[in-house]
Automatic annotation (TrEMBL):
<protein>
    <submittedName>
        <fullName>Flagellar motor protein MotA</fullName>
    </submittedName>
</protein>
<dbReference type="Pfam" id="PF01618">
    <property type="entry name" value="MotA_ExbB"/>
</dbReference>
<keyword id="KW-0653">Protein transport</keyword>
<comment type="similarity">
    <text>Belongs to the exbB/tolQ family.</text>
</comment>
<keyword id="KW-0969">Cilium</keyword>
<keyword id="KW-1133">Transmembrane helix</keyword>
<keyword id="KW-0732">Signal</keyword>
<feature type="domain" description="MotA/TolQ/ExbB proton channel">
    <location>
        <begin position="129"/>
        <end position="247"/>
    </location>
</feature>
<keyword id="KW-1003">Cell membrane</keyword>
<keyword id="KW-0812">Transmembrane</keyword>
<keyword id="KW-0813">Transport</keyword>
<feature type="transmembrane region" description="Helical">
    <location>
        <begin position="210"/>
        <end position="232"/>
    </location>
</feature>
<feature type="region of interest" description="Disordered">
    <location>
        <begin position="27"/>
        <end position="49"/>
    </location>
</feature>
<feature type="transmembrane region" description="Helical">
    <location>
        <begin position="167"/>
        <end position="190"/>
    </location>
</feature>
<keyword id="KW-0472">Membrane</keyword>
<feature type="signal peptide">
    <location>
        <begin position="1"/>
        <end position="22"/>
    </location>
</feature>
<dbReference type="InterPro" id="IPR050790">
    <property type="entry name" value="ExbB/TolQ_transport"/>
</dbReference>
Amino acid sequence: MKKLFSLLMILGVFAFGFNAVAQDDTTGTDSTAVEDTYPESPDYSAETETEEAQSFDQIIKEKFIEGDPAFMVYPLICLILGLAIAIERIISLNLSTTNTAKLLSKVEDALESGGVEAAKEVTKNTRGPVASIFTQGLMRMSEGIEMVEKSVIAYGSVEMGRLERGLVWISLFISLAPMLGFMGTVIGMIDAFDAIQAAGDISPSLVAGGIKVALLTTVAGLIVAIILQLFYNYCISKIDSIVNSMEDASISLVDLLVKHNLSK
């Protein structure tokens, strides 16, 4: 009996141990299954980093393609041509700026030391519209002060026209870019209504493409007009500054020539 009881006890211990191990394995399997049942939450941070990683030029390219290059290319052409003319005008106007006080001082010294011919050499070797006006005035010095004044006024108008050269084209592109954008808007809306008519039903997916083209072309035209308007206003302000300097310098030149004639 003792041997039988001992055998039953040993069998009971082994059975209990086997059941415990089986339960552990089942629990581990269940927990793994539970963990596998719930999918991992989507990693939105990666998408956000990707969106933030997009540079400005990439966004512009995407919007250009979404707005249909057939319509977006026209405001782009206006922008390129307008900027080319504006940059050329800005460089030319900056090169035309002259230190009038320094030029007048040199002309006065030349008149005192070498006369009119020496003053003409100074103005001919100086760049800018002010120096050109001085040269024209000095060339009429032998005909009297009144002729000098008329020559300065007449040649001042010529120089002013040269300074304003090309601005009419910038103004044209400022007006033309929004018009082309609005044309794309109208055409995009027509395409949207054609899609509705063909489908016989109003669906957001049908009209979204046409409306996007319409809005993007309008925005493109307005952005081009704003950019070119800034350059245009800068050129106008620069021309006004140069013209004021020309007028002041011309008056000072006439006074200087009158003083030089009286001192002879």
